[in-house]
Design goal:
About 45% of the residues lie in helices and about 15% in strands. It is built from 18 helices and 13 strands. Helix 1 links the parallel strand 1 (about 5) and strand 2. The chain binds uridine-diphosphate-N-acetylglucosamine and uridine-5'-diphosphate.
Length: about 375
């Protein structure tokens, strides 16, 4: 079996690194090829993750870069097709819900190449989110659907997808966190930024619904106000940086620590030691659930309800004014009692490898 892995954005690297590692321990070198679409390309959005997560250098760099949805998707498809023609893989593995995912799945489907979709079955039921369109298409055309939470089963069933394609394996993003726990603990990012562990709010925001319109200025104003009560550190996603700098009369707000995006180890160190996190990220809702760090999600909905039901996540709505409630909520909240959701245990990628490349029964009995 020959496998082509397609990645392109920051969260893709975190979700795929353990799958590549698990498959490389099963199949010889030369059976794996990695494609980096180039959807994310800044060192702090891409290369640093490959380095820190131990992902081998990609075999193919498509360099699609930024653009409209159609441009990004079309460029990826156009550049991926010849790679598939030359590599002749038996399977394409792709995670998540970004435009690189959509493009990879569509390209493979037209070439009758089976696809394994990692993190399948999540639904926000909000078709105005570009990711929701990508998720629906990816699941419709993938042959192996790897699920990380139980609600995904019902979501897929409701779309007429049969159980024979579904495999509930757990969360590969949590595999990465578990695998790197010692290096995360040693990173000491809070001290490097002059922050005391347990004292500060960590912020990340990048969804178009929040940062591409009038809500962004309001959000920054509320964060600046909150920073009078507790330190606020905000590693700014490049989309958000671009939109901030385009605001009329933009000047960096006082009190807020606006910094560059962080590499994985420093970010997870800051996340682990935060008093709370404010985010609209999908992955960070999951990581805080695992870590037991209170998370406030500045969105109207979440495709990850398990983080609200079993975890530490509170949905604030798409309402910057709700930021003002965070200190009081934290003061009145009992210490979070939480258990990681089922199979968020550091072994999801091994379960995926067991399904894609079962251990040889003769070797096991030898
Ligand atoms: C994308 C995904 C989103 C995911 C997020 C993770 C889609 C539709 N969106 O959003 O689901 O949650 O990645 O971070 O696929 N930019 C840079 N440098 C980079 C990358 C981007 O400056 O390395 C800037 C460009 O101005 C670009 C903008 O960020 O236009 C948005 O990038 P894009 O990849 O289109 O979407 P994201 O907002 O990153
Ligand atoms: N992350 C990081 N540095 C940052 C912000 C996020 O390493 O400055 C990590 C985060 O811990 C998680 C992943 O990037 O592992 C999530 O990426 P993002 O929020 O961009 O995407 P989403 O999960 O929303 O698709």
């Amino acid at each position: 079996m020959r496998i082509l892995y397609v990645v392109g954005t920051r969260p893709n690297f975190v979700k795929t690194a353990p799958v590549i590692a698990a498959m490389r321990s099963r199949l010889p070198e030369g059976r794996h090829a990695i494609v980096h679409t180039g959807q994310h390309y800044d060192r702090l959005m891409s290369e640093i993750f490959l380095d820190e997560l131990g992902v081998p250098a990609p075999d193919h760099m498509l360099e699609v870069g930024s653009g409209t949805h159609a441009q990004q998707t079309a460029r990826t498809m156009e550049r991926l097709e010849p790679v598939i023609e030359n590599e002749k893989p038996d399977l394409l593995v792709v995670p998540g819900d970004v435009n690189s995912t959509l493009a990879a799945v569509l390209t493979a489907a037209k070439m009758e190449l089976p696809v394994a979709h990692v993190e399948s079955g999540l639904r926000s039921f909000d078709l105005s989110m570009p990711e929701e369109v990508n998720r629906i298409v990816a699941d419709r055309f993938s042959s192996h659907l790897f699920l990380h939470s139980e609600e995904a089963i019902g979501n897929l069933r409701a779309e007429g997808i049969g159980p024979e394609r579904m495999h509930f394996v757990g969360n590969t993003m949590i595999d990465t966190l578990v695998a790197l726990q010692d290096r995360i603990a040693a990173a000491g990012a809070a001290a490097k930024l002059g922050l005391s562990p347990g004292s500060y709010l960590l912020v990340t925001l990048h969804r178009p619904a929040l940062v591409d319109g009038p809500l962004l200025a309001d959000t920054v104003a509320h964060l600046s106000h909150l920073a009078q009560d507790m330190p606020v550190v905000f590693p700014v996603h490049p989309r958000t940086r671009k939109m901030m700098e385009a605001l009329p009369d933009w000047s960096p707000p006082t009190g807020l620590q606006l910094i560059e995006p962080l590499g994985y180890l420093d970010f997870l160190s800051l996340e682990t030691d935060a008093r709370a996190v404010l985010t609209d990220s999908g992955g960070i809702q999951e990581e805080t659930t695992f870590l037991g760090v209170p998370c406030f999600t500045l969105r109207a909905n979440t495709e990850r309800p398990v983080t609200v039901d079993l975890g530490t996540n509170t949905l604030l709505g798409l309402d910057p004014a709700a930021i003002a409630e965070i200190p009081a909520t934290l003061a009145n909240q009992p210490t979070a009692q939480h258990e990681p959701p089922p199979l968020w245990d550091g072994h999801a990628a091994e379960r995926i490898a067991d399904i894609l490349s079962p251990p040889d029964p003769e070797l096991l009995s030898a």
